[in-house]
Amino acid sequence: MDPLIGVRILMLYKKWTMELIYFISGVLTVGTVYGVLLLRKVKSSYDEVLEESSRLYSLTQMTQDEISGKFDSVRGQLIEVLDNNEKLGKQMSDDAYAGNTELNERITELAGLFNEQGNRNKSLFDMADKQLRQNQREIQQANSTLKKIVDDPTTLARY
Predict the structure, then answer these.
(1) What are phi and psi of 16, to 5 degrees?
(2) Domain count of the chain?
(3) CA 42 remoteness from chain centre
(4) 112: domain range?
(5) Distance between CA atoms of 17 and 11, rounded to whole angstroms?
(6) Could you count the other beta carbons within 10 Å of the beta carbon of residue 25?
(7) How far is CA 89 from the centre of its chain?
(8) What does pTM read for this prediction?
(9) Which pLDDT score is estimated for 1?
(10) CA distance 102 to 95
């Protein structure tokens, strides 16, 4: 009877071993599939954040180029006003007595134009500064959001 009992014990042990192997294999398969799905989801979220950051950077570059172009235009106008002012000064020194009234009116007109252009320049630079600050805040928000995602221990624990 002893050999028969030993065979039965081996058969039970073999059966439990196979069931245990199947169970472990199933758990590992489910865990692996779940992990892959989570990685894909995180990668797509990361790609979206990266794309948004790239779009904001591009928008910032375009705005900066536009402001630079306007600045160059205003600088050209300012140089033109300064040249006109210099010409008027030279004309006044050449002909100090004739047409002083006319020259004074022209200088007053140019001074008014110069002040008006200065006010326009100030508002343009204020607008450019405001836009650059806004773009910087948006980039910082995108960076902090990305940092939160990267530094989140629950995100790391999941993967």
Answers:
(1) -65, -35
(2) 1
(3) 20
(4) 2-158
(5) 10
(6) 10
(7) 49
(8) 0.33
(9) 46
(10) 12
